[in-house]
């Protein structure tokens, strides 16, 4: 009997050492929850025994209890690194169905999230984080369990509009000696984009198509008139090319020209320049342009075409609302992080990767948002570390080692006693 009792002590000490070693091995695992081996003593009796003389039969492990006290936080500066200040678990989905709905949910305190290859918020194991659907202003649309879904982060957003208005503010030279390769005023040869002697200057101009993609466009400027005694104004003509093709003037009888007076100010008698016949029409404003005794320069250029705005910033507030900024002004909510709590967290089943599954002992999960129903607040840019105290574990490891040695000594003593009995001679 004493041998069996000592053996149970050896096994218990080994299990204690294994539990402690597991804690020490995960001292740097984010959000790892340390465990504690718990033991009970063994007594085996029968109805004829006197309880006052029954000797215990050793010990065995009753359970490995997970400790859910909070670990320390470390700042990372990464928006998608999240830590829960208080109770709660993140919900992640190892598997999704064809409609991107979770078929399995596990729970973790490890908030090391990132964007995966599909621009979905997921943890380091590729499991999508689940969140509540929200309106653009962050209002939660539904908090039913069936509404939980992964969070997709579009890299672009916004509406598109093709360019049909241009605004060009230029400085045109007054002297003929600053006209590039234009050979005369007006040029000797008809305008030809391939003949630099038929125009003075050319500049690219910004444009976008119906999909918001940049379109190659170029404007050409031709000095067509110098001042004389009868008329002291100076005249320039503009030609517009889009995608390598010239866009004709909207009115063939009214060329796309703009005129400067003797002081170099724009004479606004023609209004905006109109291009296009039967297709896409373009209106080009040259308001603010001037003529000076200086080389040609493009002072400013704008157009009304818009394309999808790129993701410029991503942030998560204390309440778990995920905000995406597109461009400088367009801000929209993408979802609200879902947390879960349990009536008995120690009843959760460990699955590795600092994760847990609901079990009968844990009770059913109660899902809600950060800061609600007793759940903790989120801190973005932070990660929760392991709650293992290395000093405490090392001391416990030494204690378990002593226990093992003591039980081994008890077994050795039992063996010696048995050997003594075997050596008795009749």
From TrEMBL:
Query: Start and end of every Flagellar hook protein FlgE D2 domain?
Result: 184-290
Query: Could you tell me where this protein is found in the cell?
Result: Bacterial flagellum basal body
Residue span, Flagellar basal body rod protein N-terminal domain: 3-30
Tell whether Nucleotidyltransferase is among the UniProt keywords: no
Q: Where is the Flagellar basal-body/hook protein C-terminal domain?
A: 379-424
Entry's Pfam families?
A: Flg_bb_rod (PF00460), Flg_bbr_C (PF06429), FlgE_D2 (PF07559), LlgE_F_G_D1 (PF22692)
Q: Domain Flagellar hook protein FlgE/F/G-like D1, which positions? A: 83-130
Checking SUPFAM superfamilies in the record gives: Flagellar hook protein flgE
**Keyword Nucleotide-binding assigned:** no
> Which of UniProt's keywords are assigned here?
Bacterial flagellum, Cell projection, Cilium, Flagellum
Q: Gene3D superfamilies, from UniProt?
A: Flagellar hook protein FlgE
Q: Which NCBIfam families match?
A: FlgEFG_subfam
Q: Which family does it belong to?
A: Belongs to the flagella basal body rod proteins family.
So what does this one do? Answer: A flexible structure which links the flagellar filament to the drive apparatus in the basal body.
The protein depicted here goes by the name Flagellar hook protein FlgE
